[in-house]
């Protein structure tokens, strides 16, 4: 196997290093970059969870603060994001222990999103997250 440089062709590098690992040829593997990529994958899963939570919470905020504009589209988005969050958490069990932390980050993003999408004043929302984790993720919870 010819060594492939990480910086020149990521795809070929990944396939090459996967083959080395499967062949148990660890001394030839690009361990430093492999570790970097694994850490990046973990960070990507966290970002995905926070993004999904932010979309969910933004729609819950709009649902709560704009009852006259509620729509099937908002309801569908809330339901879809609850499912997506559940999938991410099911595939990444260790993220469950940090869900409160992630919801805090997601809430800040959700407020910004709701302000932009609904034209709210930036000071309309409480400083702290107004729902419990269980409420946000529950199919039964609709803020009213």
3D architecture notes:
The protein is an all-alpha fold and 144 residues long. The protein has a domain at 44-137. Helices cover 65% and strands 0% of the residues. It contains five helices and no strands. The protein has helices at residues 10-22, 31-65, 72-91, 99-118, 133-137. The radius of gyration is 21 Å and the shape is elongated. The model has no long low-confidence stretch (mean pLDDT 92).
What structural category arises from helix and sheet content?
mainly alpha
User: Any idea what the radius of gyration is?
Assistant: 21 Å
First and last CA, distance: 62 Å
The percentage of residues in β strands lies in: under 5%
Number of strands: 0
Order of helices and strands: HHHHH
Topology:
Elements: H1 10-22, H2 31-65, H3 72-91, H4 99-118, H5 133-137
Helix pairs in contact: 2-3, 2-4
Could you give a short description of this structure?
The chain has 5 helices and no strands. The protein has 144 residues and is an all-alpha fold. The termini are far apart.
Features of this protein?
144 residues; mainly alpha; 65% helix; 0% strand; elongated
């Amino acid at each position: 196997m010819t060594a492939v440089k990480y910086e020149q062709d990521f795809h070929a590098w990944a396939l090459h290093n996967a083959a080395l690992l499967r062949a148990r040829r660890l001394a030839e593997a690009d361990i430093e970059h492999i570790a970097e990529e694994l850490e990046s994958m973990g960070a990507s899963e966290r970002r995905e969870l926070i993004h999904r939570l932010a979309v969910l919470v933004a729609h819950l905020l709009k649902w709560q603060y704009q009852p006259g504009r509620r729509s099937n589209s908002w309801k569908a988005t809330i339901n879809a994001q609850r499912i997506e969050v559940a999938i991410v958490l099911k595939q990444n069990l260790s993220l469950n222990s940090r869900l409160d932390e992630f919801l805090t980050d997601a809430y800040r993003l959700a407020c910004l999103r709701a302000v932009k999408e609904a034209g709210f004043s930036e000071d309309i929302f409480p400083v702290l997250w107004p729902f419990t984790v269980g409420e946000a993720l529950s199919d039964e919870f609709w803020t009213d």
